[in-house]
């Protein structure tokens, strides 16, 4: 079986500190795969290794069965491996549509010019409108990011990743910072994503994890503690001891 994303013996050391320990992760095609674990477990580091922002100390990363360990971050995106960030990364002075036009133009190989000031951007404009429509975000198209509620900004961040047409989408805490009980808007969006996109998501909001994930991997101190279905993870005493039973925050 060819996995959408696979890591083999992935290790990362910063000097004497080891933050990723021999991680073998297999993400199936069309996965809804959550990566959970306490603060500092190495979840974001894992995403940074997969996307090429960090170079592993040891191990290999495969995208659709092809090794990409030495491939540049840009080429990984071109090959369909796309991530979002734990912290907001939008252009606040631009509108939602403008924010989406940038990655869309990048993917289509067109230079991006200020909205409305270019004749060759018709394809970009059409693609942006289509994406916003699919995600039920058209009403936000002409709003400036700075005028959006925080949760809406997080939706736009996911939309930006989708504008790059990912095969594998890595979401680093898509609901971080959203008040308790309002993460439903993230879940609604995630449930609307095409089934053939393989999704790996990191989240501390366990409501979201248990409702969306089909498979969960638990990372503790850089290593995989265990993995299984949501029911298996919920019932695992070790997971309760190190994570689920404790107070935690994003
Ligand atoms: N550039 C770096 N140099 C040294 N240590 C680092 C570096 N980046 C991360 N770390 C350490 O690696 C560990 C894992 O960090 P990471 O951000 O991956 O955790 P996380 O699981 O995403 O945590 P959180 O749930 O809080 O987001 C932490 O102890 C962190 O301090
Ligand atoms: Mg993190």
TrEMBL record:
Q: Which CDD domains match?
A: ABC_Mj1267_LivG_branched (cd03219)
ABC transporter domain: residues covered:
5-246
Q: What GO MF annotations does this protein's record show?
A: ATP binding; ATP hydrolysis activity
| Gene Ontology annotations for the cellular component aspect, listed alphabetically | plasma membrane
Q: Entry's SMART domains?
A: AAA
- Family matches, as InterPro entries: AAA+_ATPase (IPR003593), ABC_AA/LPS_Transport (IPR051120), ABC_transporter-like_ATP-bd (IPR003439), ABC_transporter-like_CS (IPR017871), BCA_ABC_TP_C (IPR032823), P-loop_NTPase (IPR027417)
Annotated keywords? ATP-binding, Cell membrane, Membrane, Nucleotide-binding, Transport
Q: Which Pfam families match?
A: ABC_tran, BCA_ABC_TP_C
Name this polypeptide is given? Amino acid/amide ABC transporter ATP-binding protein 1, HAAT family
């Amino acid at each position: 079986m060819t996995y959408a994303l696979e890591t083999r013996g992935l290790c990362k050391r910063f000097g004497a500190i080891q933050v990723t320990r021999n991680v073998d992760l297999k993400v199936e095609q069309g996965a809804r795969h959550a990566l959970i674990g306490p603060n500092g477990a190495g979840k974001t580091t894992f995403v940074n290794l997969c996307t090429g922002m960090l170079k592993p100390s040891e191990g290999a990363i495969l995208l659709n069965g092809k090794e990409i360990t030495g491939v540049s971050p840009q080429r990984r995106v071109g090959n369909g491996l796309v991530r979002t960030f734990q912290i907001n990364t939008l252009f606040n002075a631009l509108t939602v549509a403008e924010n989406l036009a940038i990655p869309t133009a990048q993917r289509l190989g067109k230079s991006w010019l200020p909205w409305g000031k270019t004749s060759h951007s018709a394809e970009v404009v059409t693609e942006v409108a289509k994406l916003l429509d699919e995600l039920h975000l058209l009403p936000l198209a002409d709003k400036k990011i700075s005028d959006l509620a925080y949760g809406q900004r997080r939706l736009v961040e996911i939309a930006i990743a989708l504008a790059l047409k990912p095969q594998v989408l890595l979401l680093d805490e898509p609901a971080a910072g959203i008040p308790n009980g309002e993460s439903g808007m993230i879940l609604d969006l995630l449930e609307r994503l095409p089934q053939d996109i393989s999704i790996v998501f990191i989240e501390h909001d366990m409501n979201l994890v248990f409702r969306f994930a089909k498979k969960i991997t638990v990372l503790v101190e850089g290593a995989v503690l265990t993995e299984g279905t949501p029911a298996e993870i919920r019932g695992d005493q070790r997971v309760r001891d190190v994570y689920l039973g404790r107070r935690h925050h994003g």
